[in-house]
Task: structure prediction
Amino acid sequence: MSRRDHLTRLAGAAPAVLPSLLQCDFGNLQREVQRLEEAGVIGLHLDVMDGTFVPNLSYGMPIVAALRRLTKLTLDVHLMIVQPQRYLRAFQEAGADILTVHVEACEQPGDVLEQIRELGLGAGLAFNPATPIDAVEPYVSKCDLVLAMSVPAGFGGQPFDPNTPDRIAALRRLVPADTLLEVDGGLNADTIPRCATAGAQLFVVGSAIFRQPDYGKAVREFSQAAKLLIKH
Ligand code: DX5
Ligand code: ZN
Result:
């Protein structure tokens, strides 16, 4: 599928839950992917960490490539690495469909986003809770997706930052209507509706899915939560 096809698939399925595989059983990826496909997800969120941009290490291209061999689901790759431009082509060759880089990790975020699109991939820009929205504003026209972190990037299982819905609402007013808004970190049945109401479309969920034995039940519960709009 082309960049456009993946973006259309995500936009068409929104609001949608994307499982973050950080806490899956890496000893049995095939089974994990099968369980998530059966749960009805449209894509997988893959967290790449370098131990420098964030104080944690996860995995890189070989795992993305292994997942690519296992599934046709959209692979949404979240790069928490310094100077991500060094590895864009490698992740494209591994089979990524969307590449999201952190604004805090790029000297020239606009150039990096352009390079991602030139590789034929969806271009995403992420920013941490401590980073003002002004930092992403100059680049939104080059983004297919903007990722508002609701925890500081680096670890699964952290508590949701309560300022996130306001940040998402501000972002929604700022970005073009066809730019996807994704939120990542500390999401569950309580925090998802707050982000959905603010305008988030894609919900990355890690521990709240992988802590449960029945992924299908968890994905259904969170997909329903993403359709709940809170009245003020
Ligand atoms: C954090 C990652 C997230 C995280 C989500 O740096 O980007 O994708 O693993 O996990 P939970 O849902 O446990 O916060
Ligand atoms: Zn992530």
